[in-house]
Amino acid sequence: MELADYQRYGRQMILDGFGLEGQLKLQKSSVVVIGAGGLGCPALQYLASAGFGKIGIVDHDIVELSNLQRQVLHNEDTLGIPKAESAAIALRRINSRLNLDIVTEALTPQNALDILKPYSIVLDCTDNAPTRYLLSDTCVVLNLPLVSGAAQKFEGQLCVYNATPTTPCYRCLFPIPPAPETMGSCSETGILGAVTGVIGNLQALEAIKLATGLYQSGEKPTMLIFNALSPTLFRTVKLRSRKEDCIACGVEGKRVGSIKDTDYVQFCGGPAPDWIERGMVSGISGTRATAAELNEAIQKGQAVTVVDVRPRTEFGICALPGSMNVPIKELVADPSSHLPANGDVYVVCRLGNDSQIGADALRSVAGNGSTIKDVVGGLRAWSQKVDGKFPVY
Ligand SMILES: Nc1ncnc2c1ncn2[C@@H]1O[C@H](COP(=O)(O)OP(=O)(O)OP(=O)(O)O)[C@@H](O)[C@H]1O
Ligand SMILES: [Zn+2]
């Protein structure tokens, strides 16, 4: 250890049970953080400060203004650059000698084993079910502890999977994925920045304990539940131990098929609307269009009807020129009376969820040969990909 490191890490080295030995263990440990967003930023900040020997940062997204409310490593100067790079710039300000490995691609079934393999601890700081299952399965195969965090609205959860031979994996607890409509992203459901800060910091803490030998798995594994609005803030629930018949971590022979051959997105009910835009899944089916494709159709002068299914108040805030407003409830209640008479129909909403329901409803009453598509990513995608002056709210 370098002389200056005694000074840098002295405050934690004098702790009983930590000592020089703990610091050297941290130096030999490596941790990889998947997602440099609301959870990943605070986690990375404390992991980097504590003295891990190597830190991986994996995120395919770029920094946006709406991230700065909670993703504390990013700032106005790093808007538009990959989050993994932006986080690395901030961490190097804490310690210029950090050994960082940056990946600016999404973690996928094809690359997950290779990306996670060099590390001793994995942090799940992502926000979607397919990645949670992918991370869990990969950690089971590589026998790595997985410190998993989640946060939404005023609430958060923390759980360490796969830490000992008896601790469960994510699939042991959730063999069936949650319904996609219950898994809204922060932009749909809202999130208080300090809530992600609480959970992200706790993820860093668990990783530091795992690396230094301070981690104690209780008699029964537990999940921590945080509710910012409850007077007591925290409670823990006891979890079942590893499930013998779990298809991922159960007795040999029952392991989930090869990770590379598993379609995690389909398993979790198909892609979320913004994933195609964000490069997490490729390809787009014939019943869907990107914002750019809608723009192309309009520019070419094709006969196009845009049906905007947002509530009237939101339509009043901003709308595409010439679009017609049919709030989703009214459309679903009586699709045939709202079916445009001619032209290709593009159904749009704010983020791309209701528009899929609206397009389905119109298709159910339309004749064969009519073209009815939903716009992936909604008006937010329109603003990002087509018209930067279109308001995002
Ligand atoms: N498979 C994946 N590989 C790498 N990073 C991922 C993956 N899935 C999600 N992430 C990242 O996890 C982070 C989650 O953080 P968070 O939800 O705070 O951010 P966000 O997606 O930017 O938020 P918002 O929903 O407001 O747009 C994001 O930066 C996202 O890019
Ligand atoms: Zn399991």
Fold and architecture overview:
- Helix 3 (40-50) runs parallel beside helix 4 and helix 3 packs parallel to helix 9 (193-212).
- Helix 3 (40-50) links the parallel strand 1 (30-34) and strand 2 (54-58).
- The chain has 2 domains: 3-267, 3-Layer(aba) Sandwich (Rossmann fold); 275-386, Oxidized Rhodanese, domain 1, CATH 3.40.250.
- The strands form 2 sheets. An 8-stranded mixed beta sheet has the order 3-2-1-4-5-6-7-8, sandwiched between helices. A 5-stranded parallel beta sheet has the order 9-13-12-10-11.
- It contains 16 helices and 13 strands.
- With 393 residues, it is of the alpha/beta class.
- The structure holds adenosine-5'-triphosphate (ATP) and zinc ion (ZN).
- Zn(2+) binds at residues 169, 172, 246, 249.
- Pathway: tRNA modification; 5-methoxycarbonylmethyl-2-thiouridine-tRNA biosynthesis.
- Residues 300-391 form the Rhodanese domain.
Task: Detail the topology: elements first, then pairings.
Layout: H1 3-13, H2 19-28, E1 30-34, H3 40-50, E2 54-58, H4 83-94, E3 100-103, H5 112-116, E4 121-124, H6 129-142, E5 146-152, E6 155-161, H7 170-173, H8 186-189, H9 193-212, E7 222-227, E8 234-238, H10 264-267, H11 275-278, E9 288-289, H12 291-299, E10 304-308, H13 312-317, E11 324-325, H14 328-333, E12 344-348, H15 354-365, E13 372-375, H16 378-386
Parallel strand pairs: 1-2, 1-4, 2-3, 4-5, 9-13, 10-11, 10-12, 12-13
Antiparallel strand pairs: 5-6, 6-7, 7-8
Helix pairs in contact: 3-4, 3-9
Bound molecules: adenosine-5'-triphosphate (ATP) and zinc ion (ZN).
Adenosine-5'-triphosphate is lined by residues 34-38, 58-61, 66-67, 71, 83, 106-107, 126-128, 131, 185-187, 280.
